[in-house]
Amino acid sequence: MTNLRTLDLNLLVVLRQLLEDRHVSRAGEQLGMSQPAVSRALQRLRAMFDDPLLVRTPRGFELSARAEALLPELSRWLDETERLVSRPVFDPATSTQVVRFYGPEPEVGWFLPPLFERMRRLAPGMVLEVNSQPRDHFGPLERGDVHFVVTPFEPSASTAQLHSLRLAPLSLALVMSKDNPLAQGPLTLDRIAAASHGLVSLTGRGGGMVERDLIEQGQLSPGERLNQPLRLSSFASIPAFCERSDIVFHLPHRFAEELARGRNLVVRETPPRTTKEVAYAHLYWHERFHKDPMCRWIREQLKAGQV
Question: Is Amino-acid biosynthesis among the key words of this record (predicted)?
């Protein structure tokens, strides 16, 4: 271990060139070093290995027995060291890697199909793995379970190792049965606050964005709750529940339109004041994957797919 701590890797590079060329001047030319500098390096190498390494003969320098044994091992070790410190290479055309995403169904359905389309064309051997089970959105990133999270939610201040990319604004809408009283007439904040709401619980906590916004705008007093007789852990059954009841769901507009297509449902724009500011979907990733070449390529493809 003492020898390793004092080892100068540059000397081993010089040694390989000397043993391959068996000539101090030619080795210097190959390395971009002067002949005196190579001669000094050779003296240090001889002291390090306690061996002459290059032996002068009438025919020029020859390798010592120790040098003959060293050369193949030295070349192999230096090649492996070069691969170790070189920037990793990612070739999408030949890659079979799995890229793992977590995100709610509306954002997954919006942003990931264009990405997958590009993957199938440019990286046909890769696998896209997506998880939309309700959970803490940023825990999987912290644990390294996924490469990316696409979500409208923001991380807490404690997640300092996360990077983000803003994807697109999320306009929100209400989806309900065509027979729902809210389907007709002015859609006021008072009527929204008095309605029966359904909630897809993505984090398992709280009453949802509508409730928070209505409290902030004074439509509900602090501590007052929306009437939420239905809580789901998935978006898939929303159309069936809405068609057969007075339940209203507050969803990203694009996703609401998809759910309502071909059903006895109506999608209504929310009044401007039901959200305090424009919400955006973001892509998040952890510092551990920030410079990973596969993850960098995925980010580039996801951005290209939004154009």
Answer: no
